[in-house]
Amino acid sequence: MSASLLTTALDLAARAVPVLPLRAGKLPFGNCPACRDNACGGRPNMKTAGGCVCPAPCHGWAAATTDANVLDSTSWRRAWREARAVAYHPGGAGLTVVDLDNAEAIAWARASLPASRTVLTTRGEHWLYRGTMQGANAVRPGVDIKSAMAYARWLGTGTGTMAPLPDAVRALTVKAPAPARSVAVTVPAMAGGGVCPHRTPAYLDRGIAMAEQRITEAREAVHATVYRVFLAVLSTHGRCGCLTETHVQRLFVAAQAKGESSRHCAAAWANARTALGV
After folding, report:
1. Beta carbons of 89 and 150 less than 8 angstroms apart
2. CA gap 17, 88 in Å, rounded
3. N- to C-terminal Cα distance for the chain?
4. Which one in 106, 113, 165, 263 has a CA-CA gap of 20 to 30 Å to 39?
5. C-alpha gyration radius of the chain
6. How far apart, in whole angstroms, are the C-alpha atoms of residue 229 and residue 199?
């Protein structure tokens, strides 16, 4: 076991920085057989969400922890014996790392971003900011964002004063939504003549508006959110005949604005109908 790596990990954990071991190639350890392909239910230590509680360092960035007992446990010691580095989950520590991979990227950052704490890397620099956002790769040439749902290699505390996360960094992940494409949708034609027998028409309008809002406000797991929203709408209105193609297209447009393709929208709608038998 690399005692120095474990010592570093325990020191970071004591400072509320979630950590995990990295194997050769700066990669997290692969999932154990029980967690392969997320057969266990997903992220570790999320009991309230039905997530995996596997004691091994599975699930990549989501395995990062500040629990010293976990870090020094039997299953993690096996990983530390093979580990080549310590990584941390920036988002879990309330940080965002702008990973600059080359001289050109560094020059861009110096001209475009406020100065902040800097950590030297093998090929470039990490600029650390206070605040979190969604991690993203290749936001521009030689630049990655590591924050929520990402990990970064621990390379030391760095130098300089850490600045608040600027809007200029947040803007790097903002993309203009692709134009929504109209998709032919088969709406169940059932008794009711388009009139909801158990609610007023205003109830349906409010329900569609709320469904659009749920999709629009999704920050992660967009595809799963879209499917759950489709299920909710169909479970309430899928059998009474009040849904029209206009209503469904509104949901599709909201989903496509979040990056879902028209094919995924149609598939999610069809799967929701099948699941509910409508």
Report:
1. yes
2. 7
3. 57
4. 263
5. 23
6. 19
Q: At residue 9, what is the residue type?
A: A
Q: Which residues contact 213 (CB under 8 A, 6 or more apart)?
A: none
CA distance 74 to 77: 5
In 3D space, the residue among 70, 65, 54, 72 whose CA is nearest the CA of residue 88 turns out to be: 65
pLDDT in tens for each of the 278 residues of the chain?
Answer: 467 999 999 999 999 999 999 998 889 998 888 888 777 766 555 433 445 778 889 888 888 999 999 999 998 998 999 999 999 999 999 999 999 999 999 999 999 999 999 999 999 999 999 999 988 889 999 999 999 889 999 999 999 999 999 999 999 987 655 565 655 555 554 444 545 655 566 777 778 888 888 888 877 778 888 888 888 888 888 777 777 788 888 888 888 888 888 788 888 888 888 887 77
CA angle 44, 45, 51 (to 5 degrees): 60
For 245, residues 6+ apart whose C-beta sits below 8 A from its C-beta are 185, 187
